[in-house]
């Protein structure tokens, strides 16, 4: 019973590098989302998806890209990493957009 | 307006005390209310999920919603050191389909239970 799995758990990047944060869920949830969590800022929505092939922007989408080719997977891409993107990133999923979301354990990302 | 207000704490209480955690909100469209617990270096985990006004009890935890005052609470009875964590409230409007208004989170209250 894996739930929401995020990889990697930790990553250090240099400014300008690109990378993909992976997220997979095994609960057949339609709704998936990416948040970043920063001290004093709470959880901020980056991108979300209401089903395979459908994605949209959240509150803080700049510098990030997503795609959803399957129900299970929802990767987050950093196009050109910047120090301001140093954060903890959480992926979450739920059956419907207004229902409780299940979270992964996060990816801790540092941009030097 | 989607803003949800939550005191960041830290809130420090002795073991065995009753803990009261609260959130206020401004959007009268919110119908679903949740409390999450987040341990250090972990993702938030769902504790309580309630619809509309009223109380819901689960073991040592009680969630209370007062929609007329736009105020929700989480009570923890017989608090334990293992309850030390950050507690986030979350809420959503009652609609189906997509949209950025999925869940609106408070910023979390850091709770410390002293042995």
H and E string of chain B: EEEEEEEEEEE
* Structural class category of chain A: mainly beta
| Residue share in helix of chain A | under 10%
Rg of chain B computed from alpha carbons, rounded to a whole number of angstroms: 14 Å
* Strand fraction of chain B: over 45%
User: How would you describe the shape of chain A?
Assistant: globular
Biggest sheet statistics of chain B:
6 strands, mixed
Largest sheet of chain A: 7 strands, mixed
Largest interface: A-B, 30 and 29 residues
How many helices of chain B does DSSP assign?
Answer: 0
Q: Structural class given helices, strands, pairing of chain B?
A: mainly beta
| N-to-C order of helices and strands of chain A | EEEEEEEEEEE
Strand fraction of chain A equals over 45%
Q: What oligomeric state do the depicted chains represent?
A: heterodimer
Uncertain segments of chain A are none
Q: Cα distance, first to last residue of chain A?
A: 36 Å
Shape of chain B: globular
Strand runs of chain B, count:
11
Brief rundown of the structure:
The complex is a heterodimer of chains A (112) and B (115). By secondary structure, chain A is an all-beta fold.
């Amino acid at each position: 019973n894996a739930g929401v799995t995020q990889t990697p758990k930790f990553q250090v990047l240099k400014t300008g590098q690109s990378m993909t944060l992976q997220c997979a869920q095994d609960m057949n949830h339609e709704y998936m989302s990416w948040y970043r969590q920063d001290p004093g800022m709470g959880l901020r929505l980056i991108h979300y998806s209401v089903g395979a092939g459908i994605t949209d922007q959240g509150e803080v989408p700049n510098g990030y890209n997503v795609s959803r080719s399957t129900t299970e997977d929802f990767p987050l891409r950093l196009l050109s990493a910047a120090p301001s993107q140093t954060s903890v990133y959480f992926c979450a999923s739920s059956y419907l957009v207004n229902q409780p979301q299940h979270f992964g354990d996060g990816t801790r990302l540092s941009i030097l | 307006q989607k803003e949800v207000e939550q005191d960041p704490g830290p809130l420090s209480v002795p073991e065995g005390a009753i803990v009261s955690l609260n959130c206020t909100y401004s959007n009268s469209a919110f119908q679903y209310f949740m409390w999450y617990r987040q341990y250090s270096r972990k993702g938030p985990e769902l504790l309580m999920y309630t619809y509309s006004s009223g109380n819901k009890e689960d073991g040592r935890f009680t969630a209370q919603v007062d929609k007329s005052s736009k105020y929700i609470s989480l009570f923890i009875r017989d608090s334990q050191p293992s309850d030390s964590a950050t507690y986030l409230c979350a809420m959503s409007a009652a609609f189906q389909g997509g949209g950025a208004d999925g869940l609106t989170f408070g910023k979390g209250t850091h709770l410390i239970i002293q042995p």
